[in-house]
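As a warm-up, study this chain.
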Amino acid sequence: MRILVIGGNGFIGTPLVRELLEAGQDVSVFHRRVEASSSREVLQIEGDRNRLREYEAHFRRFAPHVIVDMILSSGEQAEQLVDLAGDLKVRVVAISSMDVYRAWGVMQGTEPGGLEPMPITEDSPLRTVRKAYPPEVVQTMKSIFTWLNPGYDKIAVEQAVLRSRRGGTVVRLPMVYGPGDPLHRLHGILQRIRDGRPAIILAEDHARWRGPRGYVGNVAHAIALAAVSEAASARIYNVCDEPSLPELEWQAKVVAQTTWGGRLVVLPTRLTPKHLLMLGNPAQHLAASSQRIRGELGYQEPFTMPEAIGRTISWEQANPPAGPSLHQFDYPAEDAALAQAQSSPSD
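Now compare it with the structure written out below.
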């Protein structure tokens, strides 16, 4: 097959392209900047994804069977892509997010009503409040994910793709970790270990919270399956580890692959330093099911969780964040909380 990947040189796109090549597919990558280190096996097309029609001749010469768009941000972008794909007579695979679900909005405190039942499936309700993040958060995230735009709306993206003439495919991603992670999801744990902290604190409600995760190599494998399989036409797929682990259990698995001699400490929420509290409503879990893609496309993780965590730790240790981190560190406040908890055993 010939597969065009839009935004294929990023965190998830890079292993996706590698997997497609190893499977014998012909791959073209459309992105803003062609780097000298780019693989010679891949046809590189340089351009602006917001002006796709200007590059139609390049796309027609490659003659893709499928377009995988890693960086769709808005409904307007999706409509442009679907319109072009219709003329090219190709199927679109759109990379979406589990932030489309109503449960996400409940957790964020933006969605009215009660808690959503678990697990989240592809048929679970979507958000009614279309803004997934406040404008200031979108602006902050744009410094990390430069493809984001102010009109970020994955629900609108999905609606456009699923209406496409060739039967588009939507892949909803979890919290993705692994080598190259721009969010450095494991940094908060590993930095405390590196600094010789005696304990890592979790608030009791955060310790219980369950959310969807996926290793980048496994997520790329799932996207590749959706790209090459005609059975994925007009389908939506969740991709995530099974089961969705509680935060305490997840951090314990990370810690187990280090030589740290400290301990994970769960504190009452009222005793937990503010910088360690989970934002939003931790009573709303985001435990998700990925049984559809496993049953319909035969998805299985190429990398086990211990292997995935080990590879991520090695990369994080060699590549600490170069700039400001999403994680916060206030060791005096953490020491004070631990001391207060020791003096209040009834808590």
